[in-house]
């Protein structure tokens, strides 16, 4: 089945943190490379795009199946500024809504390594917009604080309401981020959610906002 996935990458100052080797940003880049390869290898009608949020929200790559373009868009990322989760998600939503081939799965995989300060009302409105055009959302917490985790769990539950197409995955510091995601629904798909959560050993989450594992505080 064709699919289109946009990755939202956190490139804020928080991603300089060394609680993931060698930094959160480097670990995120390695994980996104793995996920891009996994998605594109599933078939010829699978596309991937990339949005970053830090100094500014920017579309680094439109929806494409060109691995070289995607690799180049990830290679030279630098950490800086403050992430704007809601704005980045809106940019990714618009890109997915305007994609040429609207058949198949539409998904945003958002990496979050800094505090999300959006209000509950803003997140609820965003969740409704995503659910309204059938976009699934996977959130990967790369380090967290309690309020951000709670806010994003509620957000993902609202996106996946009455559907099993979204999840939160919290990966503890010190783990290999790419390895943790490999056995989670983010990589395996939501039809394998339960197995992925069990295999993740603290890195996976089930659909509809389920979570496993814990992560260290934002610093």
From TrEMBL:
This is VWFA domain-containing protein. Transmembrane segments: none annotated. GO terms for cellular component: cytosol; nucleus; proteasome regulatory particle, base subcomplex. Residues 193-219 are annotated as: Disordered. SUPFAM superfamilies: vWA-like. PANTHER family: 26S PROTEASOME NON-ATPASE REGULATORY SUBUNIT 4. PROSITE patterns: VWFA (PS50234). Residues 4-186 form the VWFA domain. One of its GO terms (molecular function) is polyubiquitin modification-dependent protein binding. Residues 198-213 have a biased composition (Gly residues). One of its GO terms (biological process) is proteasome-mediated ubiquitin-dependent protein catabolic process. Pfam families: VWA_2.
């Amino acid at each position: 089945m064709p699919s289109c996935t946009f990755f939202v990458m956190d490139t804020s100052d928080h991603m300089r943190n060394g609680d993931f080797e060698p930094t959160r940003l480097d670990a995120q880049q390695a994980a996104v490379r793995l996920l891009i390869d996994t998605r594109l290898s599933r078939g010829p009608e699978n596309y991937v795009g990339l949005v970053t949020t830090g100094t500014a929200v920017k579309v680094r790559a439109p929806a494409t199946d060109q691995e070289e373009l995607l690799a180049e868009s990830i290679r030279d990322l630098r950490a800086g500024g403050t992430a704007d989760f809601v704005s980045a998600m809106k940019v990714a939503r618009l890109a997915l809504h305007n994609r040429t081939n609207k058949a198949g799965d539409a998904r945003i995989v958002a990496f979050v390594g800094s505090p999300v300060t959006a209000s509950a009302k803003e997140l609820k409105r965003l969740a409704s917009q995503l659910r309204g055009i059938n976009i699934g959302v996977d959130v990967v917490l790369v380090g967290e604080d309690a309020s951000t985790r709670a806010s994003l769990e509620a957000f993902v539950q609202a996106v996946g309401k009455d559907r099993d197409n979204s999840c939160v995955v919290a990966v503890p510091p010190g783990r290999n981020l790419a390895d943790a995601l490999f056995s989670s629904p983010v990589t395996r798909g939501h039809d394998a959610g339960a197995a992925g959560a069990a295999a993740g050993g603290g890195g996976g989450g089930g659909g509809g906002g389920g979570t496993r594992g814990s992560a260290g505080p934002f610093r």
